[in-house]
User: Fold this.
Amino acid sequence: MCGIAGFAASRQGAGYLNSAEKFQRRLKDMADSLQRRGPDENGIYLTDWVGLAHARLSIIDLERGKQPMVRSAGGYEFAISYNGEIYNTKELRTNLEGKGWKFQTHSDTEVILIGYIQYGAQIAEHLNGIFTFAIADGRENALYLFRDRMGVKPLFYTCTGEEVLFASELKGLFAGGIAPKIDRQGLNEIFSIGPAKTPGCGVFLGVDEVLPGHWLRIGQEGIQNYQYWKLESRPHEDSWERTVEKTGFLLRDAVKRQMVSDVPICTFLSGGVDSSLVSSICAQELKKQGKQLTTFSFDFVDNSRYFKANAFQPSRDRPYVEQMVAYLETDHHFLECGNEDMVECLYKAVDAKDLPGMADVDASMLYFCSVVKGYNKVVLTGECADEIFGGYPWFHKPEFLKDDAFPWSPNAAPRRQLLKDSLIQELDMDGYIRFRYEESVRQTPYLKGESAEERKRREISWLNLRWFMQTLLDRMDRTSMYSGLEARVPFADHRIVEYLWNVPWEMKAKDGVVKGLLREAGRGLAPDEILFRRKSPYPKTYDPAYEGMLGKQLLEHIEQGTAPILQFIDKEKTRQFLSSPSDYGKPWFGQLMAGPQMVAYYLQMNGWMEKYHVEFV
Assistant:
């Protein structure tokens, strides 16, 4: 993976080359800000109306895949800055060669660029992969910005007068001269619905994100936004047997395609069904080549001592990991994160995301990714299966099916516990949450004739794909790329998403078995004890010392009286909250973020405000 950035005139006559050194420096600054995404090399491209920057993590065609890549055709020049991985490169290349095109590299970058010259913006519809890319089209004097169907890769942009700036991460925009400002809407994004965010919203004032499955055209006519992919609801006509067969094929094909790399790959292996299936397919493929798969699992120092089983996290992972490692014969590494490392990484996770995030869920993942990078550059994960196959409690528990709220955050009361009364009143948090919820639900692609219960599950599925899965994809992208580690997510293959979107619940959870369809499709890839294990989410620490460290830090901040977070939180409410026992069984976001994560979230916010010098307007 890589980082991309740049700018273009949204009206005629930018004249960048009149001050070439100035704008080259600007591009270099933007590329440098994204160096963690692409530590191997960087490059820039500048014309009179557009500038592209690139920070490269070399995975495919290590020597000849440098970017921005430039090609000429028909007397015009075309340039690309690209972040991602295309998994049907071979087929596309063969197709383009059949049309007479010659290639100078083996990189997917060149295939995209030549494909654009051949097909125009419709190239996005030909791609199977995770990507964002910018193409400077000298034929039209226009800049195109593309984002993959599921939004696995990020791409932010802002329009300032006569110019559009874009970057893989928000920090790239700041390096290009944009000031980090937050208005009332941005505050609601952080306090009312964070760490999720509204699709397309960049949180900062004037900043947007290219929506998944969309491309933008920036030219003399201004900015045009086009949707090239969307989910469509249609009757599911396959039998149970055919559905299991097709699901199994799609999963195996997605994993095999995503193993493409000129450097060794590895997998995350939690001992749950999702990562076990991905790891099993990878292990089988590598064994055919006489190679052994490297796998990694995550836990926390002394978690065997402090672990507390609850409704969301019924069991520890390690016994299941050990069983799966023996089954697959992988080169396995048990990684553990200590309290000090996790607290330190809370702030690194803010640097990675440019926003407060999923607290220690982000922090620990960032730490683990930094260790994995010492072994491998590319990892395959089991992310996204629960959103697609209906693995979360809110898909099947009656209380969620009756509620009209974001199911991962059904009660806003915990969010108000520490806030100043004046802020709560000013933000109208409940109103903002309701507005965003209703706005999203109205966009659900319903199927005519569905029962009320199936219609509700389709709404929940839609919200999960648009919101919750995007939050987890953002987490995976930022925490992995912070260390220059490329994380791939086979379950987010758009073909799997399209097919499963229309599979009815009685098949997804046949005979009441949650994710029963996936488990049946995985027969032969893992022992039954793994395939039919009850879901246990990403682990977190239960060490009271960690919670104590968080509380001490936040208390020190508020007692000093100069912490920027004091603009928003109430001292007395915070003191009372820190002196009360935490309830790990009642998360305020998802399944993992309970009392301690609320404290960590505000610590992240305080660090974010200090580092970015955020201005509230």
Observations:
- The longest strand covers residues 76-86.
- Residues 249 and 540 are 33 Å apart (CA to CA).
- The mean pLDDT is 93.
- The chain is about 40% helix and 15% strand.
